[in-house]
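Shift notes (night). Ran Phosphoribosyl-AMP cyclohydrolase while the centrifuge was going.
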Amino acid sequence: MTTAPSSPAPSPEARAQFLAAIRFNRDGLVPVIAQAQGSGEVLMMAWANAEALEETLATGRVVYFSRSRNALWRKGETSGQVQHLVDLRLDCDGDTVLAVVEQKGVACHTGRRSCFFQALREDQLVPITAPEVEPEALYGHAHGH
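Came back to this:
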């Protein structure tokens, strides 16, 4: 895996323009879909507020907002599974963000590459991928989401 993109951060004016175009929900949040650069694989969905997106654009490291902790969630700060920003895109309605990322390791807290690992097979909801790493190895203890 390569390092974070070397392009400079967008200017403060450009970051403000991007944030102004977003239609945040009544809680001040917007859904963010993380997609792997190159493969296009959908890795996860999380929420972000304006502060998280501003930091993401300024630093190149993807930041979300944890609703359960009511705080910024710098992806990988506990697990080491960092997401480096390649591109941040806003959808046509302004209410969903796509983060194209370089994913270091796995994206899911279950130890899988993607959070989207459950599917219907033979009328049962089953995991279709196995963990690549045990959650205990990522967090040092059993971790619930």
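The radius of gyration is 16 Å. The chain has one domain: 12-139.
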